[in-house]
């Protein structure tokens, strides 16, 4: 596996690639594989055409009216879409705030990558596999059958192409941007990046011809990237576990975690209810649990509004599993519909 530092490695000029960071190393490997009639897998874990559209005059970014998130640009069919609630609206020709005519696309998605790859390698047969191309029944099977028959030269897509695929003719795997999820406000961001890169790397070299993997990143020294390049779970754990262990703020697996998510139609009511949940937890820790429960929050969720609901959360930590069990059982007995409880949550977004 070759880790490609996008900050310093020779790259194809931006005039040819647009917003896509495309290293000469990856470009040469793909061209060589195509000449040898081998297959390529390209991973970009972000669907759509562009991350968002922005007005160059006033900086306005169209957002979802139901969620606290920018709308993603799609081109097939053309629309701005929310990936959380499904809201959809036309791509604006002028800015809704200032009326400026030209709108700029920011960021990169699999649809834009597909267009670029098609222009860069015009003779290659390309298939894209993401949530947008696999909504119909058996769609993913049809795509994979084409790859297995040799009817596809380049398969590109999101995380769904990262594991479980066994195609002996795939000799080149490229992670177009390994940093897409590396810096999310979630303690498992590095862990997920390690898993994804390590998994997709295993798609290359499953046949007698061997394979090469190129991981493009601007954080080549990050322990998740380095451990994935070494295919070493032990190396990743040795670097990650101290970051979740005191004196650092403790997180699983060094401690247990329960997340209380409060969601209502009214922001003030959500914040007030979150304060009550936190107060109840702190009182339980003080009066019934001998201080064995640590309470964090309340605070707005990183995705503060989803599907029209304002969201706050409170975290409860304990090294004693029975303590968290008592807390969860006691709260569920109260059965407040606006509060959901998630023990050992997989995401803090």
What would you say this structure looks like, in words?
The protein has a six-stranded parallel β-sheet with strand order 1-11-10-2-9-8, sandwiched between helices. The longest helix has 21 residues, at 267-287. The chain has two domains: 2-48 and 107-243, P-loop containing nucleotide triphosphate hydrolases (Rossmann fold, 3-Layer(aba) Sandwich), CATH 3.40.50.300; 256-343, 2-Layer Sandwich (Alpha-Beta Plaits). The two termini are 31 Å apart. By secondary structure, the chain is α/β, with parallel strands linked by helices. The protein has helices spanning 14-17, 24-35, 110-120, 139-149, 189-201, 223-229, 233-240, 267-287, 321-334; strands at residues 2-5, 39-43, 52-54, 72-75, 78-81, 88-89, 104-106, 126-129, 154-157, 170-175, 212-217, 256-264, 294-306, 309-318, 339-343. The mean pLDDT is 90. It is globular.
List the helices and strands and how they pair.
Layout: E1 2-5, H1 14-17, H2 24-35, E2 39-43, E3 52-54, E4 72-75, E5 78-81, E6 88-89, E7 104-106, H3 110-120, E8 126-129, H4 139-149, E9 154-157, E10 170-175, H5 189-201, E11 212-217, H6 223-229, H7 233-240, E12 256-264, H8 267-287, E13 294-306, E14 309-318, H9 321-334, E15 339-343
Parallel strand pairs: 1-11, 2-9, 2-10, 8-9, 10-11
Antiparallel strand pairs: 3-7, 4-5, 5-6, 12-14, 12-15, 13-14
Helix pairs in contact: 5-6, 6-7
Quick gist of this model?
This protein has nine helices and 15 strands. By secondary structure, the chain is α/β, with parallel strands linked by helices. It has helices at 14-17, 24-35, 110-120, 139-149, 189-201, 223-229, 233-240, 267-287, 321-334, and strands at 2-5, 39-43, 52-54, 72-75, 78-81, 88-89, 104-106, 126-129, 154-157, 170-175, 212-217, 256-264, 294-306, 309-318, 339-343.
């Amino acid at each position: 596996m070759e880790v490609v530092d996008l900050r310093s490695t020779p790259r194809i000029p931006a005039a040819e690639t647009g917003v896509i960071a495309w290293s000469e190393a990856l470009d040469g490997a793909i061209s060589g594989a195509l000449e040898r009639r081998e297959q390529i897998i390209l991973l970009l874990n972000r669907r759509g055409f562009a991350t968002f559209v922005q007005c160059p005059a006033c900086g306005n970014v169209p957002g979802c009216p139901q969620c606290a998130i920018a709308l993603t640009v799609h081109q097939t069919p053309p629309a701005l879409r929310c990936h959380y609630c499904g809201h959809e609206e036309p791509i604006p020709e002028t800015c809704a705030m200032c009326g400026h005519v030209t709108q700029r696309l920011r960021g990169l998605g699999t649809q834009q990558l597909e267009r670029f790859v098609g222009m860069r390698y015009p003779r290659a047969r390309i298939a894209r596999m993401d949530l947008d191309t696999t909504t119909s029944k058996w769609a993913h099977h049809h795509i994979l059958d084409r790859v297995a028959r040799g009817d596809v030269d380049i398969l590109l897509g999101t995380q769904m192409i990262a594991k479980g695929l066994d195609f002996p003719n795939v000799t080149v795997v490229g992670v177009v941007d390994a940093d897409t999820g590396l810096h999310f406000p979630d303690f498992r961001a590095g862990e997920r990046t390690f898993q994804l890169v390590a998994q997709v790397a295993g798609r290359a070299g499953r046949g007698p011809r061997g394979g090469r993997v190129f991981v493009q990143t601007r954080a080549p020294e990050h322990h998740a990237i380095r451990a994935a390049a070494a295919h070493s779970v032990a190396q990743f754990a040795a670097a990650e576990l101290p970051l979740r262990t005191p004196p650092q703020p403790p997180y699983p697996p060094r401690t247990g975690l329960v997340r209380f998510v409060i969601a209502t139609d009214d922001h003030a009511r959500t914040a007030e209810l979150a304060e009550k949940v936190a107060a109840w937890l702190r009182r339980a820790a003080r009066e019934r649990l001998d201080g064995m429960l640590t309470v964090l929050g309340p605070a707005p969720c990183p995705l503060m509004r989803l599907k029209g609901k304002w969201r706050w959360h409170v975290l409860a930590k304990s090294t004693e599993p029975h303590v968290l069990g008592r807390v969860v059982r006691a709260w569920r007995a109260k059965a407040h519909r606006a509060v959901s409880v998630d023990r050992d949550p997989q995401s803090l977004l």
